[in-house]
């Protein structure tokens, strides 16, 4: 009998982001990606959301991490885990370049040996022999990874699409997948589900380049500003080609954009003539109509370049009626409102705004149903688990697999925290390790649901603080309760409401003192309940109540 192999999903199943899984045999573990998820408006003050690493730390850590590509939802949590563990990270030159920057910023570069992998390389990660195969996505250097395990080959698609004309000529390795399917065979397929409910196929990235070239060519006499993902080097290449082709000078704006462009040029992944690329500090004196600026902020990020322009707070640019701004990305689910606010802010300042709603300036990096069918046909897996997507995406991908002829009993739907086990007898669910979200607010801590609930309430209903001073030895209320509130009720009604709260608290406190109570905690609870009831009855709102009971 061959040793069993377990896969534990720490994130990325049922959500877009924080992709992270552990492949394990005989107590030896390898991490497959280590990503984070950006927090939405429902998580006030939270910077990002991480996988829960406690199970991993308690169970002995990992021997290596295979980073499939350089997106934040696949590598963004590495610095947080490497604060507590040390292990090598395998990835392409571009992926490791961004990982190196993250670890350098965090002072953790000595915690991980960065081991470069090239297309077609075979390498050993922990107990597993691995093979890296090229995949087309919206970032350079992504890999499909095949893990040779005691239970056969586990194939992880990474984020992928099938593009017959990729900008860098690097196509998804379907022929190699087909060869592996023939020998030794794919025992388990883990595949991207992001667009599993979307029929057809994704457009080629080159099609977007054609649209951008035409759009930029039409903006003669105007300054052009293009917002794009800083990691989308293929899109940046096409924007720069369009700029150079129309005689424009290109400037980059935004720290991540400048860093990634520099790294991609250093690695030979991005080609632009030296004379055509300037620093943003070096474009003064150039006719704005001969300038194209490519920048961050296409997702409405609060401190990004486009957001600052929309708010009139940019150090470098003032937007006016001779500017055209192109959003060359589609809003990530949850970002629609933020992106809309930036677009509106730019329009109010006079800019002409182009985006996916009025121009085909973006295409997905994730395969749609037809591409998923091709992948399944090439891999011909014995077992299948859909990964990377919201739960509706996972369900759609599972249905697609069964419609293609897979036995439904060989398709397992999993969620964050689920653990599956591959044995001689097949694949089965093997419990759960929790899969909870870990919230980052400046630093990793124990920020949990209670604090987040309080923040939401503060944002919607404000707070009421009640200060009570007692002399418990003599059974006296030393001062009338002081009530201070913020974000609760506007003046002139506020004074009356605060007075009513103070009256209610005073009455309850005096009654308790007359009864001979001396427990300070009991008084805090009494103040809390009196203030909560009064504020709710008078305003129908539920502010956060902060009781402060002090003993003289």
Outline:
31% of the residues lie in helices and 26% in strands.
Low-pLDDT segments = none
Give the radius of gyration: 28 Å
Strand content is: 25-35%
Distance between the termini: 73 Å
Strand order of the largest sheet: 9-8-7-4-3-1-23-24
How would you sum up the global shape?
globular
- The counted number of beta strands is 30
Instruction: Calculate the mean pLDDT score and round it.
Output: 91
Main structural class: alpha/beta
**Helix-residue proportion:** 25-40%
Count, helices:
15
**Strand count, sense and closure of the main sheet?**
8 strands, mixed
Structure keywords:
552 residues; alpha/beta; 8-stranded mixed sheet; 6-stranded mixed sheet; 15 helices; globular
Structure explained in plain terms:
The protein is of the alpha/beta class and 552 residues long. The protein is 31% helix and 26% strand. It has 15 helices and 30 strands. The strands form six sheets. Strands 9-8-7-4-3-1-23-24 form an eight-stranded mixed β-sheet. Strands 10-11-12-13-14-21 form a six-stranded mixed β-sheet. A hairpin with a 2-residue loop joins β10 (122-125) and β11. The longest helix is centred in the last third of the chain and has 22 residues, at 493-514. The N and C termini lie far apart (73 Å).
């Amino acid at each position: 009998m061959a040793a069993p192999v377990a896969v534990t999903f720490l994130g990325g199943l049922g959500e877009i982001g924080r992709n992270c899984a552990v492949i394990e045999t005989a107590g030896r573990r390898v991490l497959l990606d280590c990503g984070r998820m950006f927090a939405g408006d429902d998580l006030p003050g939270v910077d990002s959301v991480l996988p829960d690493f406690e199970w991993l730390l308690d169970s002995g850590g990992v021997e290596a991490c295979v980073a499939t590509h350089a997106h934040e939802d696949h590598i963004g949590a590495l610095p947080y885990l490497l604060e507590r563990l040390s292990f090598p990270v395998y990835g392409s030159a571009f992926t490791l370049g961004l990982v190196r920057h993250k670890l350098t910023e965090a002072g953790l570069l000595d915690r991980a040996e960065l081991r470069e992998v090239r297309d077609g390389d075979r390498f050993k990660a922990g107990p597993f022999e691995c093979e890296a195969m090229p995949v087309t996505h919206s970032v350079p250097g992504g890999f499909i990874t095949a893990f040779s395990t005691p239970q056969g080959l586990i194939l992880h698609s990474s984020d992928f699409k099938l593009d017959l004309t990729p900008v860098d000529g690097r196509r998804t390795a379907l022929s190699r997948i087909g060869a592996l399917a023939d020998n030794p065979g794919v025992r388990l397929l883990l595949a991207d589900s992001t667009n599993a409910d979307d029929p057809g196929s994704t457009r080629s990235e080159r099609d977007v380049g054609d649209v951008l070239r035409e759009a930029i060519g039409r903006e003669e006499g105007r300054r052009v500003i293009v917002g794009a993902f800083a990691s989308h080097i293929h899109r940046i290449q096409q924007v720069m080609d369009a700029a150079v082709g129309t005689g424009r000078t290109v400037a980059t704006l935004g720290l991540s954009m400048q860093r990634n462009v520099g790294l991609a040029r250093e690695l030979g992944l991005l080609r632009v003539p030296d004379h055509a690329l300037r620093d943003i500090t070096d474009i003064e004196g150039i006719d704005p109509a001969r300038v194209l600026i490519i920048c961050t902020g296409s997702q409405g990020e609060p401190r990004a370049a486009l957001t600052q322009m929309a708010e009139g707070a940019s150090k470098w640019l003032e937007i006016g009626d001779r500017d055209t701004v192109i959003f060359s990305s589609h809003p990530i689910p949850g970002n629609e409102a933020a992106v809309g606010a930036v677009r509106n802010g730019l329009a109010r300042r006079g800019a002409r705004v182009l985006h996916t709603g009025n121009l085909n300036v973006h295409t997905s990096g994730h395969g749609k149903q037809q591409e998923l069918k091709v992948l399944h046909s090439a891999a011909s897996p014995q077992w299948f688990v859909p990964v990377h997507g919201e739960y509706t995406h996972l369900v759609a991908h599972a249905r697609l697999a069964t419609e293609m002829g897979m036995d439904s009993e060989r398709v397992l739907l999993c969620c964050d925290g689920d653990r599956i086990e591959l044995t001689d007898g097949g694949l089965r669910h093997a419990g759960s390790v929790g899969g909870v979200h870990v919230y980052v607010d400046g630093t990793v801590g124990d920020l949990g649901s209670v604090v987040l609930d309080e923040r939401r309430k503060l944002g919607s209903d404000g707070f009421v603080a009640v200060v009570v001073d007692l002399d418990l030895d003599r059974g006296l209320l030393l001062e009338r309760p002081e009530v201070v509130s913020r974000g609760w009720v506007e003046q002139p009604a506020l004074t009356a409401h605060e007075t009513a709260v103070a009256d209610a608290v005073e009455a309850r406190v005096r009654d308790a003192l007359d009864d001979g109570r001396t427990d300070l905690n009991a008084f805090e609870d009494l103040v809390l309940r009196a203030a909560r009831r009064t504020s709710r009855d008078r305003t129908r709102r539920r502010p956060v109540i902060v009781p402060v009971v002090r003993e003289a």
